[in-house]
Amino acid sequence: MTDKSTQEEKNTKPAEGAVTESAQTNASGERSEHRSFARSSGQGGRGRGPRGERGGRGRDERRSEFAQKLIGIRRVARVMAGGRRFNFSAALVLGDKKGRVGVGIGKAADTALAIEKATRAAKRAMITVPLTQNRSISRNVEAKYCASSIQIRPSAGRGLVAGSSVRTVLELGGVTDVTAKILSRSHNPVNNARAAIEALRQISKKR
Fold first, then answer.
1. Yes or no: is domain 67-124 CATH 1.20.140.150?
2. pLDDT band at 5 (very low <50, low <70, confident <90, very high)
3. pTM check: above 0.70
4. How many helices (H) and strands (E) would you count in the chain?
5. Where are the domains of the chain?
6. Using one digit for the tens of pLDDT, what is the confidence trace for 122-135?
7. d(Cα 89, Cα 107) in Å, to the nearest integer?
8. Does domain 127-201 have CATH number 3.40.50.1370?
9. Which residue has better confidence, 18 or 191?
10. Nearest CA-CA partner of 174 in 148, 200, 151
């Protein structure tokens, strides 16, 4: 009797194991179905990605109205009672390549904050240049700022011929088919850019 009972117990154990395996497969199937439903419905961490991307695109589109380019960034040291304190000075050109351009300078303890201040200053000092049909200027202009002296002449069919930061100002302002020449020996990019702005201001419109 004992031998028969042990054999019956052995025969019943595999059946229980099969039941547990099927239950595990069912549970895993339900989990996979739940994961696929969550992905398709947009629930969970991955579903939030497209919303964030849409918001990022909107911010980029708002910022893409103006193009900017750094023309100079330097570290400035100020001697205090407890030692030297360092700040950063950033100068950039801001323009929409449609006739609006400006130059700004910002100073702060961080480079990112200095660039942000320079961007706001460039927007405040922005001018509008009336362009001709071939995106040139109407007449010769010449201006002087500090030690920098610059001359800009229209030249049809030659494209943009300029150097230093003067080229950056004209590019971001959307001015082509002009020839610019720096008449002074100054190599300061900020003064050259401001001299270009002063030259364009002679034919510019008020904002």
1. no
2. low
3. no
4. 5, 8
5. 2-59, 67-124, 127-201
6. 999 999 999 988 89
7. 4
8. no
9. 191
10. 200
